[in-house]
Amino acid sequence: MHKRIMVKKPLLFTPLPTCTQSPGTHLSTPYALARHRLHVSTFPPSLPCCEREFSEVYSHLSAAIAEGIGSCIYNSGIPGTGKTTAVREVTTQLQYLVTLKELGDYIFVEINVMKVTVAHQAYCLLCEAIKGDHVNPSQALGLLEPEPSTPCPRRVPCVVLMDEVDQFVTRS
Questions:
Q1: By CB neighbour count within 10 A (0-12 exposed, 13-18 middle, 19+ buried), where does 167 fall?
Q2: Which of 19, 20, 79, 95 makes a 20 to 30 Å CA pair with 172?
Q3: Distance CA 70, CA 142 (A)
């Protein structure tokens, strides 16, 4: 009798490697330039019309990280308006402050719900990112539940971006 050994594939959390265009892309025609600028790997040099939102998210997250308190921001709007890009830019700016030692260190975890097949997998991904543990959803929830309410001066704050979280909403 042979035992069948099954190896569970570990869950991956985003950000995943993205496709990038080569810098030598020939942009001689307006079509080529538009195609380059609209490619999913292209990030704009600035976020026009998002200054107020950027400022609100920035001040909210920097204060929460500096004070070590739990906080939540819900950012909603029409697809393609730069919500995710704005939050990523905020975390980039905050990470720059960390390198300058003007802000304490923090963990950034991005979970794209479109890549999660079952809502409870989000707990597993979060637990893996924060604690490094590969566990089932109920174990992950048990490990994560005391985190925000248990004071610990040595704990590194964690910023979690749950992208496309509205995909979790169903009739059932």
A1: middle
A2: 79
A3: 18
Segment (H or E) for 63: helix 51-67
Write out the two tokens for 99.
């390198």
To the question of pTM greater than 0.90 for the whole model, the response is no
Q: Which residues contact 121 (CB under 8 A, 6 or more apart)?
A: 11, 137
DSSP for 59-120 reads HHHHHHHHHT---------STTSSHHHHHHHHHHHHHHHHHTTSS---EEEEEEGGG-SSTT
- Quick: pLDDT tens for 54-111: 888 899 999 888 887 777 888 888 887 788 888 888 888 999 999 999 988 888 888 8
Residue 87 φ/ψ, nearest 5 degrees: -65, -40
Rounded Cα distance, 109 and 156, in Å: 13
- Amino acid found at 77: G
Cα distance between residue 146 and residue 148, in whole Å:
6
Rg (CA), the chain: 19
